[in-house]
Amino acid sequence: MSAPAHAGSAPLHPPRTTGRARSEWRVVPTLLPFLWEYRVRVAVALLFLVTAKVANVGVPLLMKAIVDDLSPTQQVLAVPVLLLVAYGVLRFANTLFAELRDMVFVRVAQRAVRRVALDVFRHLHNLSLRFHLNRQTGGMTRDIERGTRGISTLLNFMLFSIIPVILEFLLVAAVLFARFDWRFVAVTFAAVIAYIIFTISITEWRTAIRRHANELDSRANTRAIDSLLNYETVKYFNNEEFEARRYDDSLTTYEAAAVKTEASLGLLNIGQSAIIAIAATTLMLLAAQGVAAKHLTLGDLVLVNALLIQLYIPLNFLGMAYREIKQSLIDMDRMFRLLEEHREIQDKPGAQPLAVGPATVRFDKVSFSYEPERRILHEVSFEIPAGHKVAVVGHSGSGKSTLARLLYRFYDVSGGAIRVNGADIRDVQQASLRAAIGIVPQDTVLFNDSIYYNIRYGRADAAKDAVLEAARAAHIHDFIVSLPEGYESPVGERGLKLSGGEKQRVAIARAILKNPRILIFDEATSALDSKSEKAIQEELERIARGHTTLVIAHRLSTVMDADQILVMDHGHIIERGTHRELLEQGGTYAQMWALQQQEEKDDKDDKDDKDE
Q1: For position 581, what pLDDT does the model report?
Q2: Contact 408/519 with Cβ under 8 angstroms?
C-alpha cells in the first residue's frame, strides 16, 4: 500500500476560472492526486470490481445451462448439482468481491475528505480579518459540510458506478453478440444511448434548480445560526417571533425550490423507466419469437431476461449515479470557492523570522484605509523603545484599535511602514511576529470549552502549574476554584457563561501565560468595576515591566505611568508627552482628564447619596 499522506503536503487548490461560466467538472483534477497517491489500493479495488462483474455476468449463463438441463426436452437423468453449486458460488463471489472492493477503497476516499477539509480549514485561518468580518458563518459551514461529503460520494460513484456500468454493458453486449443475432445488440445499444442522452439532458436542467436550492438552504442556515448566536439581543428586544418569521421566510423559499427539485426528479425517473421498459419488451419479444421458431431454447429466453435485468438495474443506477456526481460537483464547487479566496496577508518569499531579543516597535508615517474612500490613519509616527510603555488615548473612532490590528498584521498598511527592531513586519514571517506579541483585546471571545482550556490556549504546551500561576496573576484563580467544576467549568458559546469582567481576566491570564516580548492592552480593563480595575491595573503594570507595551485606553487613569502618551483624533496624533506634560499643555488631553475626573466625582457622590 502507498504511504499515507503527510500533514505537510502542499495544499490542493482547484484551477481558477474567470468569467461567469463555471464548470463543476473543473474540481475533478483536484482529486486525481489522491488516486495516484493510493494507486496500489485503487488498482486492487478495480481488480476486485472486475472480478465481481465477471461473476455477475456469469450468473445468467449458468441459469441458462441449468434451465436447459432441467428441461424435459433434454431428458436429464439427474439434477445438475455442479451447475447449481457453481451458481451459488458466483452469487457469493459477486457480493464478496464488491465488499472487498469497498473495504480496500474506503481509506482512499476518507483520506481525500480529510486532506481537503484540512486544506480548507487552514486556508480559512490564513485569510485576512477583512474576509472573516464579512463572512456568514452558518452558510459557510454548511458549504464545507456538503463539500467534504461530496468528495467521498464523487470518488465512490466515479470509480464504482460509472466504470462498473460500462464494464457490465460491454460484457452483456459481448454475450448477446456471441449467442444471438445482431438485432439484440442493436436494440440494447439504442436503448443505452437513448437512456444516457435523456439522463444527462434532464440532469443538466436539474443542476441549476439544485444549485439554487443549495443557496437557499445555506441562507436559511445562516439566518438560524446568526439568530442563535445573538440569543441575548433577540431576548432584549422581544423579537423571537420576528426571528421566527425571518427564518420561516427562508425555509419557505427553500421549500419551493426543494419541491421543484423533487418534481424534476420524478420526471427523470419516469423517462428512464419508459426507455428501459420499451427496450426490455422489444428484446423479450425477439427472444420469445426465437423460442417459438425453435431457434432458441427456453434457457436462452431466461438468459436474455436475466442479462437485461443485470444490465438495466445498474443502468438505472447510472442515472442516480450521474445525479449524485453532479450534486457532489456542485457541493464541492461551493467549498472550493473558499480556496479561491485571495490571501490578502501572506509571507513574502524568503521572509525571515523576527530577530530574538528585546523588541523596539516603530510606526513610520503609517497610513491606512479599510476602504479606499475612508482613511483611518494619516501618516502616524511614533516609537516604543524596548521595555517601554506607550499609551494611545482618544475618542471612539480616532484609530486607536487599528494600530493594534496593524501591528499584529491583520491588515497591511496603505502607506509607510511598521518596523520591529528595524525590520519591516511585511518582510517578517507572520508566525514569528505573532508569537512575539500578546494581546488583551477589548472584546474577549472565548472557545466553548473549559476555563482551563481557554487560559492554556495562550501557550498550548504550558504545564498546569503555569496555567494556575497565570490565573492568580490575573486575579481570577479564587473565582475559578469557587466554581463547582473549578478549572474544568465550561464557559459556554463565546464565553457567555462568564461576566464581561471574568472573560477579560481570562484573556489577561492567557496573555500572561504567553509571556511575549510585545504586549498590547486594548481597553484591557474596560469591562471591570473600579475595585477590580485597580487590582488588575497593578498586575498589568507588573507584567509590563521589561516588555515593550502598547496600551490603548479610554480611562486616562490607567495610563498615567506610561513613558509616553499619544492623543489621537481622526487618525492623527495631535498631542504626545507624559501625563504631567500633557496636563501642563492644557490641550485635548487635559480636557479629557478634567472631564473624566468630574465624571468619577459625580459617580462617587451618587454612590454616597445612595448609601445614606
Answers
A1: 92
A2: no
Name, in order, each residue with C-beta under 8 angstroms of 26's C-beta and a sequence gap of 6 or more. Answer: 14, 15, 17, 333
Average pLDDT for residues 355-378, to the nearest whole number?
Answer: 87
Fold of 444-515: Rossmann fold (3.40.50)
User: Which of 30-44, 127-141, 392-406, 444-458 shows the lowest per-residue confidence on average (mean pLDDT)?
Assistant: 127-141
Per the CB < 8 A criterion, the answer to whether 506 and 444 are in contact is yes
217 Cα distance to chain centroid: 16
What residues does CATH 1.20.1560.10 cover in the chain?
25-339
Provide Rg for the chain, Cα atoms: 35
Q: CA-CA distance, 430 to 421, in Å (whole number)?
A: 15
Superfamily of domain 25-339: ABC transporter type 1, transmembrane domain (1.20.1560.10)
The strand pair at 361-371 and 548-553 is best described as unpaired
CA 140/CA 409 separation, integer angstroms: 24
Nearest CA among 67, 81, 74 for reference residue 300: 67
Question: For 19-28, 109-118, 309-318, 462-471, which range has the lowest pLDDT when averaged over its residues?
Answer: 19-28
Least confident of 80-89, 239-248, 399-408: 80-89
Tell me the CA distances in angstroms from 461 to 211, 513, 514, 579, one per residue in order.
45, 11, 10, 40
